[in-house]
Amino acid sequence: MKVLVVNCGSSSIKYQLVNMNDESVLAKGLVERIGLDGSVLTHQPEGKDKVIINADISDHSIGIKLVIEALTDAKHGVIASMKEIAAVGHRIVHGGEKFADSVLITPDVMKALEECIEMAPLHNPPNIMGVNACSKIMPGVPQVAVFDTAFHQTMPKEAFLYAIPYEAYEKYGVRRYGFHGTSHKFVSQQVAELMGKKLADLRIITCHLGNGSSIAAIKNGKCIDTSMGFTPLDGLVMGTRSGGIDPAILPFLMKKEKMTAEQIDNYLNKKSGVLGISGVSSDFRDIEEAANAGNERAALALDMFAYRVRKYVGSYVAAIGGVDVIVFTAGLGENSITMREKICNGLEYLGTRIDPVKNNIRGKAQEISADGSEVKIFVIPTNEELVIARDTKTICGNLA
Ligand code: ADP
């Protein structure tokens, strides 16, 4: 069975075609600049040369059509015809409270996704466009929605509610939802497997550290708390997002700088985080380089990032009554040897000791804690596409 995994952004489509017989990736690629000048498809078939296709891609339907053409092309294709695609799995950012698991997309599900637009105005509309484009190009092929929010739906009320009048929750669904759920779920399952333990016996803290970063407290395989909130702005310091701040800063700055609601939203989402502090970049590689060259604000941004992660780890240890393993994943978590060291130095009180030699790895699943460390530390590369493909297979396999 072959599953097409699709992740639509406002001007992009990321895709992978996965052969579920052995979970191998047959091809992957990226459509960029949809609706803009210079739109392009970069297609990477497994074991063949990368192909760059420049075309006028004015909307997501044209993008999906080009992806199918690339996948079935006589020269750089990997399947003979579109009929080989048994199902499509979509990454959907916001499922609200309606979805605690992945689902087969039906007209009712589409209606629910539309209702979530208000809560994820930047993400859900392109996700929905992706589903519509696939229905148009591949009519009759089952499609599955896999939500970033679903894994976090097990959070108890005391963790997901904000202490504002209860009516805000009842009327508008204002609560913590959490994101990156597919990644937190995947790495928690992987680490249990690598440790040879049952998920049900573990207390896990997963640190998804990338451009967007979040952390989750997982007990008996269930998410108990996570750092992103009503939107992905809450929690850790991020590439360009502030993470948690005193909410009273908003009206203060809006008055001082004469900012509109939209402008302050942009300020906190796009101009803050390690970019705002360092003034150098939102990319951690640039900031690490600048810090090494003596840039004090770059060094401060890295210290603030690590400090916030450590604070969250401490609070999540309290939330789940201890911790057995801490996992690092995503771009920074998988690749930054120095950031992992910086975060772990200061967690020794928990019985956590990082091994500098084992930690000297990038992008590889491996234990990095020292022998005898009471709390284990692991690096686990995330694979959200594989989770989407697996869920799609499970759901569509049940259809047959
Ligand atoms: P997102 O999916 O949220 O866009 P990623 O998970 O791809 O983000 O992570 C991107 C971040 O990971 C970038 O800030 C990048 O600097 C950082 N990163 C990637 N490789 C390294 C590395 N070798 N050292 C330090 N940071 C890295």
Question: In words, what does this structure look like?
Answer:
It catalyses: acetate + ATP = acetyl phosphate + ADP. Pfam families: Acetate_kinase. Its EC number is 2.7.2.1. The structure is a single chain. The protein has 400 residues and is an alpha/beta fold. The protein has helices at residues 60-72, 107-115, 124-137, 157-160, 167-172, 181-195, 249-257, 261-270, 273-278, 284-292, 296-319, 330-335, 337-344, 384-397, and strands spanning 2-8, 13-19, 24-32, 40-45, 51-54, 85-92, 103-104, 143-147, 203-209, 213-219, 222-226, 325-329, 366-367, 376-379. The protein has two domains: 2-147, Nucleotidyltransferase, domain 5; 197-384, ATPase, nucleotide binding domain (Nucleotidyltransferase, domain 5), CATH 3.30.420.40. Helix content is 37%, strand content 20%. The longest helix has 24 residues, at 296-319.
